[in-house]
């Protein structure tokens, strides 16, 4: 499929300059290397989920937090289909958290991207489970009292066989999807993405570094946990470093391959 054919006639309603455009472009760039007729996408609800309208692929724009059970249904129905799920951090870590943990356990061959802008952006910036302590908005005027969760540590602990994090950058999204395609099993990919309006960039990209370039062995679980702990989502301090890359990779039995046909 040519890049042209991946376009739809829906004009994007994301804010001008939104980092979601990078993720969209990265996904399209990756799809140019695939047989797009054999690919399907599933989204939840939110700004991130609008990506569904801008890519000419089959799939389902599902309910808030329900991306992963829909992906699983597609894989069980047609195991040969390449299934890509897209969620915001609210979608994945609040409404959808129970599905996320079980997706790691089922290990269906699904590629799942979480656009983590650390807020519920579409509904105008309420805190999510990865919002930093102290963040305030109209719904939480006294500031968030709870500490953020660390989804990478949760995914590692849940047995996920492919745990990665990238920044919302065309090349990084394209590259990690190519790596994920060569992995058989559930792939969790967090995409760090400031929100221009409700969680603006406070120097995120500058704080990132690539763990593969630093010599990380992605088969080393203990080291993956240590690296996942390095960024705790509690905001940008001068000494914050945000590790990016493939934290952990290990092939495990794939759910749909174990079903009798
Ligand atoms: C079950 C349910 N709860 C709440 C909503 C309202 N809602 C729609 S979009 C949204 C925020 C989405 O935030 P996130 O998933 O972080 O994605 P973002 O908009 O930040 O990309 C919410 C709470 C809904 N549609 N369905």
Question: What can you see in these coordinates?
Answer:
28% of the residues lie in helices and 19% in strands. The chain is of the alpha/beta class. The protein has a single domain, classed as Thiamin diphosphate (ThDP)-binding fold, Pyr/PP domains (Rossmann fold), CATH 3.40.50. The strands form two sheets. It has an eight-stranded mixed beta sheet with strand order 2-1-3-4-8-7-10-9, with helices on both faces. Strands 5-6 form a two-stranded antiparallel sheet. Helix 1 packs across helix 6 (170-181) and helix 3 packs across helix 4. Thiamine diphosphate binds next to helix 3 and strand 5.
Q: Short summary of the structure?
A:
With 261 residues, the protein is an alpha/beta fold. It has one domain (15-253): Thiamin diphosphate (ThDP)-binding fold, Pyr/PP domains (Rossmann fold, 3-Layer(aba) Sandwich), CATH 3.40.50.970.
CATH class: Alpha Beta
Low-confidence stretches: none
SSE string, helices as H and strands as E: HEEHEHHEEEHEHEHEHE
Number of DSSP helical runs: 8
Largest sheet: 8 strands, mixed
Overall domain count: 1
State the separation between the terminal residues, measured CA to CA.
Answer: 31 Å
Q: Give the strand order of the largest sheet, numbering strands 1, 2, ... along the chain.
A: 2-1-3-4-8-7-10-9
Q: How much helical structure, as a percent, in the residues?
A: 25-40%
> What Rg do the Cα atoms give?
17 Å
The CATH topology name reads: Rossmann fold
List keywords for this structure.
261 residues, 8-stranded mixed β-sheet, 10 strands, 8 helices, two-stranded antiparallel sheet, alpha/beta, binds thiamine diphosphate, Rossmann fold
């Amino acid at each position: 499929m040519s890049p042209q054919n991946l376009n739809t006639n829906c004009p994007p309603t994301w804010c001008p300059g939104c980092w979601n455009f990078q993720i969209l472009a990265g996904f399209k760039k990756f799809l140019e290397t695939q047989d797009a007729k054999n690919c399907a996408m599933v989204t939840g609800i939110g700004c991130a989920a609008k990506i569904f309208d801008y890519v000419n692929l089959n799939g389902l724009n599902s309910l808030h937090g329900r991306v992963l059970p829909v992906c699983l249904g597609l894989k069980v129905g047609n195991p040969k289909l390449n299934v890509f799920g897209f969620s915001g951090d609210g979608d994945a870590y609040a409404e959808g958290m129970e599905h996320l943990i079980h997706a790691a356990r089922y290990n269906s061959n699904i590629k799942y991207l979480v656009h983590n802008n650390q807020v519920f952006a579409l509904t105008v910036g309420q805190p999510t489970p990865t919002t930093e302590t102290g963040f305030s908005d109209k719904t939480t005027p006294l500031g968030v009292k709870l500490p953020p969760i660390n989804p990478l540590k949760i995914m590692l602990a849940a047995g996920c066989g492919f745990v990665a994090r990238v920044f919302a950058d065309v090349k990084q999204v394209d590259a990690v999807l190519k790596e994920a395609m060569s992995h058989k099993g559930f792939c969790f990919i967090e995409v760090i993405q400031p929100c221009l309006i409700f969680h603006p960039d406070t120097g995120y990209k500058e704080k990132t570094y690539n763990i593969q370039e630093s010599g990380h062995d992605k088969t080393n679980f203990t080291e993956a946990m240590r690296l996942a702990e390095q960024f705790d989502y509690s905001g940008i301090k001068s000494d914050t470093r945000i590790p990016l890359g493939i934290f952990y990779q290990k092939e495990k039995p794939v759910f749909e391959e174990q079903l009798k046909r």
